[in-house]
Request: fold
Amino acid sequence: MPAQRATSRLSDTDLVQRCRAGSPEAWNELVGRFSRYVYAICSRGFGLAPEDAEDAFQEVFTRVYSRLDTLRDDAAIRPWIAQLTRRVCLDRVTSSAHEQPVEEVADDRLERTIEELDEAFSIREALEELGEPCHELLDRFFARDESYRTISEELDIPSGTIASRISRCLGKLRSELEGRNPGDPPSGVQR
Amino acid sequence: MNDPRTYDEERLGRLIGLLEPAPEGWVRAAREIPAFRQMLDEIVARAEADRAFHDALVADLEAAMADAGYEPEPRMVEELRRELGRDGRPVA
Reply:
């Protein structure tokens, strides 16, 4: 059965406002929308061990929940979460790994990784716009690392056609990206 | 944002792959944060209003929670221990 879509078309601004109003559905959506991003910063960006990454992940979302009222620009939720995540990960690195100075973590490599994750987030937003089956197909193959066989079984499509479908979907994704104005605002800003 | 012309298939695939799903259990726990905080606030407020309940929590946190009908879930116990320990008294 296809996995549930990670995000909806609700803008980040609307999402934040609904979370502030106490909507459980909005909070679920917010966690779904940013969970991969936070996870990637903790694991890929800072290279935290799984148990540290899990603690950091929960701490980030606890802070997001308790400090949402302090966010000045609701459309800027993604950079705000990125900043919170960096702070939480840095705290964890400094408190649990004294053998590695903070400067070695917060170096150019980290900056480049986070820039790439920001770009990957934008790609994911474009992927959402593609709809199904491309969203599901590309996510399963590239992000979930599923085999042709698994994808074939789960989505009930012939395995022999998966490679060509992936290629076609990547072409659509590229067209979607090309159709976007480079000056478009980032995640969540009303278009 | 990068020039869209640089988005060849290989690059797009790599970028999609950077954001793999977080473990399901982590996401589930994060989604439970509002309910968790609500219960935590409720217990702390009750402890502030009811001295006997407060003292019971300090004496044996997990037993007092269970007696009051709260599940002594480890994360909740840890957080309560931190909250109740703020007045300087050790919490059992």
About this structure: The interface with chain A takes residues 1-5, 7, 9, 12-23, 26-27, 29-31, 33-34, 37 of chain B (CB under 8 Å).
